[in-house]
Design brief:
The protein is an alpha+beta fold and about 280 residues long. The chain is built from seven helices and seven strands, in the order ααββαβββαββααα.
Amino acid sequence: TDAEILQLRAVLRDLVALSAMPTAWVGREPAAVTAGLADALIGLLPLNFVFVRLCVPGVAGGVDVTRGKAWKTFPEWLESHLDKSGRFSVKEIIPDVDGGGNSCRGVVIPIGVDAEGGLVAAACDRIDFPTEIDQLLLCLAANHAATAFQSARLIHERTRAEEELRKARNELELKVVERTAELRRSEAYLSEAQRLTHTGIAALNGTTGEVTHSSDEHSRLYGFDPEQGVPSFEEFHQRVHPEDRARWTEALERGFREAASAEGEFRVVPPQGPLN
C-alpha cells in the first residue's frame, strides 16, 4: 500500500542518515560524539526523550547526555535498576515510563556485552513504540556511535599524551638552556679570576698523555694563543725551561701515580723570552 511504501521510504531515509553519522564524527571529541548521537536520535526518529551513555570497555569514565524531558524519572529508574542487577545484559521495554498513566513508552538498549560500551534509552509517545524497526535503528546508531566514541577516546588520549610529552620536552629544553647559560657564566667568572691571578687549569689523559683541556690563562702562561686551540703535551714540554723539564715531568707523573695534586716550581720559556 501507499502507506507501507511511505513508511519503507522513511525507514530507508533514517537508515541512510544513521549509517552516515560516523563520517561526521571523525576527529570529534568523545563528548561531541555522545551529544551527536543523542541529537541525531531525537531529531531523526523522532523521539520525546533520549539518554546516551558511551564508554570504553575496561576504562573508567564515560560520557552521559540527555535530550528531552518526557522520561522524568529515568535517572531514578536507571539507578534502581543498576542497584538490583549491576548491569544490563538485554534490552528492556517499559510500557509506561513514569508509571502514572503516561502516554510515553520507553526502551533501554545495552551497547556491548553487559552494556560495557554504554547504553541508549529512548521514550516516545507513539502507542506502537518501540517497533522492531525502531529498535533496529537505535541499535545501529548506538553501535556506530560506540565505535566512533572509542576511536575518539583513543585519539584524545594519544593527543593528550603527545601534548604532555611536548610540554615535558619544552621544559627540559628550557632547563638545558638555563643550565647552559649558568655554566657559561661560571666559566666566564672562572676565566676572569684566572686572568687576574695568573693561574690556569689543564687536563691530561692519563693513558695517552694527551692534553684534553687547557684554560685560556693556562695556555697564555706558556706563551700560547688560546684562540689557536689546545697545544700538545710535547709543545707544553718544550716551553718549560730545559733545566726544569725533568722536575716538571716528575711532578706530573707523581700526580697521575698517586691520583692527587702535585706541586712544583719550574720556569717557562715562552717565545718572547723567559717568565720570572
